[in-house]
Specification:
With 148 residues, the chain is mainly β. It has 2 helices and 9 strands. The strands form 3 sheets. The protein has a 4-stranded antiparallel β-sheet with strand order 3-9-8-5, with no helix packed on it. Strands 4-6-7 form a 3-stranded antiparallel β-sheet, with no helix packed on it.
Length: 148
């Protein structure tokens, strides 16, 4: 189990079974289901449909409100459905289903020098990239950096 120590609890690492094994790249999934509700606020609105081809990074859903964030594809392939799907938080929510093409193609964007943009332009870039916080609510960063 674990031992309590004066400065907190120190759990065992349980690495005996894997500590000498090499690290391997994970295989691409054959299909992904990407929830349109991934952040605090309004779920995103899908902008792709069945049959659309996407790459990693292709925007597949548009923000649908102030506290909302665009969502991008995590694999390349073909959209096979846009429908309600069971969500880990409970209940059914909209989702985009993508079947992998096995190529893992990426949509590349030219990096920009942040010094050349106004704060409003940077906020728009951050919003379009779908950047959200790493806390439990995944609050959209563009909203955080633009307080009322």
């Amino acid at each position: 189990m674990f031992k309590s120590k004066p400065r907190g609890v120190h759990l065992r690492y349980y690495k005996e079974l894997t500590e000498l094994k090499p690290i391997k790249d994970a295989l691409l999934p054959q299909e992904v289901v990407i929830a349109l509700s991934q952040h605090a606020g309004t779920p995103a609105r899908p902008i792709v449909g069945p049959g659309d081809k996407v790459k990693c990074g292709t925007k597949i859903a548009e923000s649908a409100g102030l506290v909302s964030s665009p969502i991008h594809a995590s694999i390349s392939g073909v959209v096979t459905g846009v429908k309600d799907y069971f969500h880990p938080i409970g209940g059914f929510y909209g989702a985009v289903i993508i079947s992998s093409d096995g190529y893992d193609e990426k949509e590349f964007f030219s990096p920009a020098d942040p010094k050349g943009f106004s704060s409003k332009e940077l906020q728009k870039i951050i919003h379009e990239a779908g950047v959200v916080g790493l806390g439990g609510a995944a609050f959209p960063t563009a909203v955080k950096i633009n307080p009322p």
